[in-house]
Structures are given as structure tokens and as C-alpha cells.
Design a protein that fits this description.
The complex is a heterodimer of chains A (361) and B (214). Chain A has 361 residues and is an alpha+beta fold. Chain A has 2 domains: 212 residues, no CATH class; 60 residues, no CATH class. In chain A, a hairpin with a 2-residue loop joins strand 4 and strand 5. The radius of gyration of chain A is 29 Å and the shape is extended. Chain B has 214 residues and is mainly beta. Chain B folds into 2 domains: 47 residues, no CATH class; 149 residues, no CATH class. In chain B, strands 8, 9, 10, 12 and 13 form a 5-stranded antiparallel sheet that branches. In chain B, strand 1 and strand 2 form a beta hairpin. The longest helix of chain B is centred in the first third of the chain and has 13 residues. The radius of gyration of chain B is 29 Å and the shape is elongated. The interface between A and B is large, with 58 and 67 residues.
């Protein structure tokens, strides 16, 4: 549709084609009031409740999270000076204009969402993984929630390939126009984070003077950010923490302890008008929907570090090295010793791991 | 031309536009949505949906704090079944014989910072590992605290201070310049459970008080 300024003066001899004119009438049709209702779902606004709105002045979407507390501390969000509310500016003072600031949710900041914080779901989404091999496979896309499918959001594409040299043999949902113009869907995640130390194991292998080899596991704690207050962040996706740590995972380098604990606060969705072009950036014509995942204030605790003053190495040496022609009895004995050493290591790691937990207050 | 409906504004191919243009401008000028506080506007192809967020009604939960005239009142709640007191008066405003006395309230003043707290204070007694809430009138109280010791809640729970544990139930916000009360934020919405844990290596040598929703 052409963008037409209805206030512009039109000379008598300048033609206006009928389709442009009717596009203007359709624009007006969209803007006329259709219904007015009050929202009854928010009889009580719980902590961490999310809401989204369009900032017409800065041409961007923003969201707000009602105040929530962890351990008596209001969660914070880091914002540029231009984005922080006036009450925060009054508190901080003009002398700090140049820097970014941590603003508590109690000061009701409107948090901007940058376009790269949105992920696309539906007809213009990107695959998050490929299943298969060179000869046959399928691209996997995030599925459209039923709630939005009922509102006319287009289904995610189906892209498969079955022959080497032919990258795609089936594709649907991307180019199909159809009579019904599908809507586009975007989503962003709001995450609550509490920093804590993480358990790190550094592994080194070296040789002794007598030629025997030994492996050195250096267990230490690391912190990413010495920030004690909980804080919010916006991401395009949220992946919950995986399975608990085991000694085997740590020693083999598969598991990496992360120096924080996350909680999923809310998901903010934006739905376009029908017929919006794929890959469009959300503007004021899109409709927001907020899905809340957190409803109560929290307490948080992590296991306390026990740093031993006497932190000398724990000797876990093996018996004599195995040479050719070793009997089964010797192998079983060495395996038994290995298992015992592993149990010692596992007990040490489990006693010194750092875990955090949230609970409602 | 005065258009009576949108249909009057539509043009057919070859029809003169200027009269309809003028009518459209008049029509548009007469319909304008002005969005006020608490309103949300959603555009659809057929029109605009206007939604109003009515002011929320807080539900009457335990320990609900309200501020008025320099005083904070706290709705009745319990800690391990014990009703806290303000200046010796239970939160439900009844004496030992169940007669209604008056609802107690906290006097709150500007705390020299932009925030302060309404806290539940619990006193425990006993020996060694087993300490329980004291069996006297002042064992559980509600007070106004100007700050929470940052070491108390850094790693969850309240560090024991000579048999006393503290749990915030609301935060008060103040204006540093005018020294006036601004807002109150509820933290606890339920009755509370409490437990004292003795010092141990896992707790860094600190005895702690843990509170949870009961």
C-alpha cells in the first residue's frame, strides 16, 4: 500500500489513481475504532508481570516488568542514560549522564527491545538444527504455538532433502501465498540472572622423572561478574540448564559449570498484520502478547564455597603400569583401584560443587 | 461533499477524485483516537481495538502492607502459626481474650536513603542445633528497617544475630529530594514458615534463619 499523507494539498490536475485512493481508504478503515473493552485478566498484577508497548518516538518496541525481588533486592536492568526513567535520573544525578546504569524495577523502566533480540517463528523463521546426513535430511524449525496458529500466524516451513547434490527437494510454507495471508510472529525472552561462582576443572597431562605419566586436575572457582544484585536481560532464546553435573562429565571436559543461575521470567510475542512481508521488523502495527513464567518474589541461595587452607594435591596414583601379557587378575585389580580413585574424585567434586536454587517467599 | 459512511468515500475507476478527497479529509479529521493512561490500541485491517487496563485490585493476602499518613498497616499473617506484633499488639488487633483492640500500625520516617523495609523479626531460643521461636509476646514482631544488612541476604536466608532473624515483607520507596514516601512494593504474599539452622561449614560458619511461603 502506498503511504499517502492525507493532509497534503493535491492540485486539480494531478491524477490520483483509484487503487492508491482505495489504499488510503483501507488505511483509514484500519484506524477507525471498532471495539472498546476493558481487560479483566489483570485483576491483580503479580510480581514479574510483563507488558509490552510501542515507543512511537524512538520507533521501537519496549517492555516493562513489574517489580520483583530476590533476597529482598529488587531486580535491576542496565540501561543507557537516554532510556532510564526520569525518577532514576533524579536519583542518580546529571553528572552521571555518560554511562550506563543499573535501574531497579521499582523505578518502572521501559526496557527497549532491539531487533536482534527477536527470533522469528513461522513462515520466515530460520532452522535451529539440521537432522540427517549428506543423502537425506530435514531442517528443523520452531513450531508455531497453537494460540498463534489460531490467530492466523503462518506455519513454519518444511524443508527436506533426499539426494546428494540436490540441496532441497521439498519446501513448503515459505513461498506459498495462498488466499489467506498469514501473519508473522516474533518472540523474545526475558531472563532473570543471579551470579555465583562456578566450579572449573583444568586438566593437564605430564610425565614424571621416571617416565610415568600423570594427569593433574586443578579444581578452582571462577566468577564472571561480581554483581550481587539480580538482574534482567533480553535474549532471542532461552535454554534451561541441562542435567546435573557428574564427576565423569567434569573430568572429561563435557560439562561446563556456568557462573550464574537463570530463571525464565516472560516471553514477549509480537504478531503482524496479515500479509506482512517476511523478515519485516516489527513496527506499531504489530500486536504484543506476553506470556508470564514467574509470579512470586524469590529467595536464592547457592552452596557455600569451602576453600581449604591446606590445598595440597590429593595423590591418586595408579599402581604399576601394565605391560604386555598382563593377567586378568592384575587388570581387575587395577580397575578396582581406578574405580576407587574415581569415587574419591567424585566425592571431592560433589562436596565442592556450587549449586544455586530459588524458592518463593 | 459530506460523506455519511465509508462507502460514500470509495471511488470508481474514472470518477473525479478531488471532491471525494476533500470529503475524506473532513471525515478523517472528525475521527481521531486519543489514547490515555492505561489504554492500549491495537490495529487490525478492519479497525482499531481499544483496550483499557482497569486499576488492579489487590487481593487480601497475609502481610499486605499499605501506607497512609506516615504509617504502615500490615494485614494479619503468621510465622509458624505465630501472629506477629507491632508494639505488643497482634496484627489482627485482638487481645489475649480475642476482643478487638485496634489494628496496630508502624510509624515510618524518611530513612536517609531512597528505600526502606517492613520486616518480620523472629527471636529464637534453645541450645545447640535445636532453636525454635521463643514462647513469649515479643518473639515475632513487625518493624520498619532502614536497610537490610547486605551480608544477611547475599546468599539466601537471614544471618542469625544473637538469636534474631529478619525477613523483609515489603519495600518502601522514598524521594531523596523531597523526603516523601513514594510507593510500597509487596514482597511476601503468604503466611510464612521459619526454620533456624545452626552454623556449619556449608553455611560458612554462620547460623541462619530461612523463611518460605507456608
Amino acid at each position: 500500500m502506498q503511504t499517502i499523507n492525507p493532509a497534503a494539498a493535491i492540485p486539480d490536475n494531478l491524477p490520483i489513481y483509484h487503487d492508491a485512493w482505495n489504499g488510503l481508504v483501507d488505511e483509514f478503515r484500519r484506524n477507525r475504532p471498532l471495539t472498546a473493552k476493558r481487560r479483566n485478566s489483570a485483576l491483580w498484577q503479580h510480581p514479574w508481570k510483563a507488558s509490552a508497548s510501542y515507543d512511537a518516538e524512538n520507533k521501537r518496541w519496549t517492555y516493562q516488568i513489574l517489580p520483583g525481588f530476590v533476597n529482598g533486592d529488587s531486580a535491576e536492568i542496565t540501561l543507557d542514560w537516554e532510556d532510564i526513567p526520569q525518577v532514576s535520573k533524579n536519583r542518580i544525578g546529571e553528572s552521571e549522564k555518560s554511562s550506563r546504569h543499573e535501574i531497579p524495577l521499582t523505578e518502572r523502566p521501559q526496557i527497549p527491545i532491539t531487533p536482534n533480540h527477536f527470533r522469528r517463528i513461522g513462515i520466515d523463521s530460520s532452522p535451529f538444527k539440521v537432522e540427517g546426513d549428506q543423502s537425506q535430511g530435514r531442517f528443523s524449525f520452531e513450531s508455531v504455538p497453537n494460540f498463534f496458529r489460531d490467530k492466523g500466524v503462518g506455519e513454519q516451513p518444511v524443508i527436506e532433502y533426499t539426494e546428494s547434490g540436490r540441496p532441497v527437494t521439498q519446501i513448503s510454507g515459505v513461498l506459498d501465498g495462498g488466499e489467506d495471508e498469514p501473519r508473522l510472529l516474533r518472540a523474545t525472552e526475558v531472563i532473570l540472572t543471579k551470579e555465583r561462582p562456578a566450579l572449573t576443572v583444568d586438566t593437564s597431562v605430564s610425565s614424571g622423572i621416571d617416565g610415568t605419566g600423570f594427569t593433574n586436575y586443578n579444581v578452582r572457582y571462577s566468577t564472571r561478574n561480581p554483581r550481587s544484585t539480580p538482574y534482567l536481560s533480553t535474549r532471542s532464546s532461552f535454554i534451561p540448564r541441562s542435567s546435573p553435573m557428574t564427576a565423569e562429565m567434569v573430568l572429561s571436559g563435557v560439562f561446563e559449570d556456568l557462573p550464574f543461575d537463570d530463571l525464565h521470567v516472560a516471553t514477549i510475542y509480537l504478531v503482524s498484520l496479515p500479509g506482512q512481508k517476511p523478515n519485516s521488523i516489527p513496527d506499531e502495527t504489530w500486536t504484543p502478547y506476553c506470556q508470564n513464567h514467574l509470579y512470586w518474589n524469590l529467595q536464592y541461595e547457592h552452596t557455600r564455597l569451602q576453600v581449604s587452607e591446606d590445598s595440597g594435591p590429593i595423590g591418586l596414583g595408579l599402581g604399576s603400569g601394565l605391560a604386555g601379557g598382563v593377567a586378568t587378575l592384575n587388570i581387575n585389580l587395577e580397575l578396582s583401584n581406578l574405580n576407587e580413585r574415581l569415587n574419591i574424585i567424585e566425592e571431592f567434586l560433589l562436596n565442592n560443587r556450587v549449586e544455586g536454587r530459588y524458592w518463593t517467599t | 461533499m459530506n460523506a455519511k459512511s465509508i462507502r460514500d468515500l470509495r471511488a470508481r475507476k474514472g470518477e473525479k477524485i478531488l471532491p471525494k478527497w476533500q470529503a475524506l479529509l473532513e471525515y478523517i479529521a472528525s475521527t481521531r483516537i486519543v489514547v490515555g493512561d492505561g489504554m492500549q490500541v491495537t490495529q487490525t485491517p478492519d479497525g482499531t481495538l481499544v483496550t483499557a487496563d482497569i486499576p488492579f485490585r489487590p487481593f487480601p493476602h497475609p502481610f499486605r502492607c499499605t501506607h497512609s499518613g506516615g504509617k504502615v498497616t500490615v494485614s494479619p499473617g503468621t510465622v509458624n502459626g505465630v501472629m506477629p506484633r507491632i508494639d505488643g499488639v497482634p496484627l489482627d488487633g485482638r487481645d489475649e481474650e480475642g476482643r478487638k483492640v485496634d489494628f496496630p500500625s508502624l510509624d515510618v520516617e524518611f530513612p536517609d536513603e531512597w528505600k526502606s523495609y517492613v520486616v518480620v523479626v523472629v527471636k529464637v531460643e534453645g541450645e545447640g542445633l535445636r532453636k525454635a521461636i521463643q514462647d513469649n509476646e515479643d518473639s515475632v514482631q513487625v518493624r520498619h528497617a532502614t536497610d537490610l544488612n547486605p551480608y544477611i541476604f547475599l546468599e539466601g536466608g537471614s544471618t542469625d544475630e544473637r538469636g534474631v532473624g529478619v525477613h523483609p515483607i515489603a519495600q518502601l520507596r522514598w524521594d531523596k529530594q523531597t523526603k516523601q514516601f513514594v510507593d510500597i512494593f509487596q514482597m511476601s504474599h503468604f503466611n510464612l514458615g521459619h526454620r533456624y539452622t545452626a552454623a556449619s561449614p556449608q553455611s560458612g560458619g554462620f547460623s541462619k534463619h530461612f523463611f518460605w511461603s507456608a
